[in-house]
Design a protein that fits this description.
The protein is an alpha/beta fold. Helix content is 43%, strand content 14%. The protein has a five-stranded parallel beta sheet with strand order 1-5-4-2-3. α5 links the parallel β4 and β5.
Length: 122
């Protein structure tokens, strides 16, 4: 089976959102900026490891739960998933809800771990 439709859809969504690399996210944090990092993977994925400061809100409930975590629509938010696709969809969704400073972590948790960043196992 081909995944061309999915790949095209992901590319279209990514054209409407902003992505941030692990390196640029870490530089931002080092300057004192503290974007809220939200991991949108499922619990079964997160138990194998996640970034230490990540708030865990699975993609399936993100829109219903986000206001409990982030009330200020201008708060810097970085969304992460396994590879950067679900977080792109999540970023687009939060933008549509009115959040104005949302980005997706390029490469997701795989990029985080590959960059040698700390991983917490739940």
């Amino acid at each position: 089976m081909s995944n061309d439709l999915f790949r095209n859809y992901v590319a279209e969504v990514k054209s409407r959102i902003r992505e941030v690399s692990v390196e640029d996210y870490l530089k931002e944090v080092a300057t004192g900026a503290k974007p809220v990092l939200i991991d949108v993977r499922e619990a079964s994925e997160v138990v194998r490891g996640h970034a230490p400061d990540a708030i865990l809100i699975s993609r399936g409930i993100l829109e219903g739960e986000i206001e409990d975590e982030i009330t200020d629509l201008s708060t810097p938010v970085v969304l992460s998933c396994a590879s950067g696709n679900r977080s792109a969809f999540a970023a687009e969704s939060l933008q549509r809800m009115g959040y104005t400073n949302v980005r997706s972590l390029a490469g997701g948790f795989k990029a985080w771990a590959a960059a040698g960043q700390p991983v917490v196992k739940s």
